[in-house]
Sequence to fold (215 residues):
Amino acid sequence: MLHHLLLLLSLQSGWIALFDGKDTSQWVGAKTGTFPPQGWVVENGMLVVNKDGSGRGGDLLSRRQFTNFDLEFEFRLTPGANSGLKYLVKKYPDGSVLGCEYQIIDDQDNKDIAADKDDKRRTAGLYELFAPTSRRLKPIGEWNQGRVRVNGPLIEHWLNGVKVVEVRRDGPDFQTAKAASKFRNVADFGQGSGYLLLQDHGDPSAFRNIRIREL
Fold:
């Protein structure tokens, strides 16, 4: 009864809870179609991945697709960890699952980006395409708030209340950045509608308070 009341209140406010601290029904394994039996656990209001090393659960995919939306979430990393939240995600015949990514990573101590000469793979950036203009990050082990807005051609990334990326996906800047990235041959990358994805990169990390409203 309480779950249905909370859902009704969320719908009336325009926000839909994708993870409310307990319910994982809005998510399935990206390659399986069911919620993973291992790897992902609910603990103290958090959705935690790779906590105990008992086995990878794989990426999580939202049950439905979104077009124009305002998405809010909180994330927490462990030292050296890499994760991410993807959106406008599409499934391709070769089995790949690709979309734009709000990068989530330990900017200081992740070995994969230690030699990077730009910030396009650092937290809150549009992965591989656009660096964040600023990163007012809280320390590893503390919670940060992320936000993604997609409204028509406009994409925005926010970090702890500050807008750090703004780009039009129908503009030349987006096309130029895409052409220089590993997504250069994905014709519909970042276009149309798509799923949301929480990444299992093999590192312990956590999410909470994930909610969305359609624009």
User: Anything to note?
Assistant: The mean pLDDT is 93. The chain has one domain: 2-214. The domain at 2-214 is CATH 2.60.120.560 (Jelly Rolls).
